[in-house]
Amino acid sequence: MSKVPTTVVTGFLGAGKTTLIRHLLQNARGRRLALVINEFGDVGVDGELVKGCNDEACPEDDIVELANGCICCTVADDFLPTMQKLLDRPNPPDHIIIETSGLALPKPLVKAFQWPDIRTRATVDGVVALIDADAVAAGRFATDEAALAAARAADPNLDHDSPLEELFEDQLACADMVVLNKTDLVDTATLARVEAQVEAETRAGVKIVRADHGAVDVGALLGITAAAEDSLDARPSHHDGEGGDHDHDDFDSFVVTGGEVGEVEALTARLGALIAAHDILRVKGMVAVNGKQSRLIVQAVGPRIQHFYDRAWMPAEIRRTQLVVIGQKGLDRSVIASDLRDILG
Ligand SMILES: Nc1nc2c(ncn2[C@@H]2O[C@H](COP(=O)(O)OP(=O)(O)OP(=O)(O)O)[C@@H](O)[C@H]2O)c(=O)[nH]1
To answer: Which of 18, 21, 39, 183 is the pocket-test mutation for ligand 1 (most atoms within 8 Å of CB)?
Structure first.
């Protein structure tokens, strides 16, 4: 029996995983895909965006959302039963795509493919790591030695390096292919510098592909045939000594819910100020705008904020605003939430 190839898409918060997957769905060339989407925040924004594609390659029934925590920590409870259900179908998909949360370690997930019931029926075709070239260039994943020293002084039990740097290294060390995304945001010399930095963290022979909005050749993306579950030892992780376990105590996430927004510009200005003041890593969600039929999607990755109307609110939906906010541990939840609620109505 041939195994169902599975692609694990990893990459830090906002690197462009959902954007790449949307590109993939639109260029599936007759493949029937199933999608497993994992999010760190409690609101399934990525699932909403992908379902919004209404794509033949991946009807809604083939999209599974795992929004209650990071997939690498809930492998046995959530991920394995999800895979079993997909593989038990009378007509299993041609290819499975897994979008991990931006804070997930890919290795525990790949390890799950050694589970006897999965191993005989599915294989990891490849781990694809998305890199935000702009964020790397801005030094987001480099260790801020002063900040680390301060964190160590405040918490003598702190036993690891910068959590962002660790994730960056773990995700790259597990990759079979790296997509250097957001090339439109950096100049050629910066891109070359970032590429060299990324190459230093990847295993020998791993291909690095440059991309703008995740537009990668789908044939190259699906068909790596790495059988990654057979070469786990070659994929070092900062968490190897802990049986692959890690927790997400280094990060905080919460949802701010509100009513309708009057002025979109006022909302984005407030968001921009909050992101800068609190070093927020990621904001995303759906916004109800006064007098507008359509819902507004808001996305912020570091200081960069984007928004667009994706579709009309459905009659059964409550017109409300839900924003997921993610940052490093110590995020001032009450100040941020009350400041945002001020503007959410
Ligand atoms: N300028 C630019 N923006 C991009 C590119 N790729 C993605 N984006 C934008 O970056 C933001 C985050 O993209 P997503 O695809 O949602 O990122 P993600 O990795 O799925 O995010 P999380 O699931 O929250 O980790 C969105 O506003 C995208 O439109 C790119 O190549 N260039």
So the answer is: 18
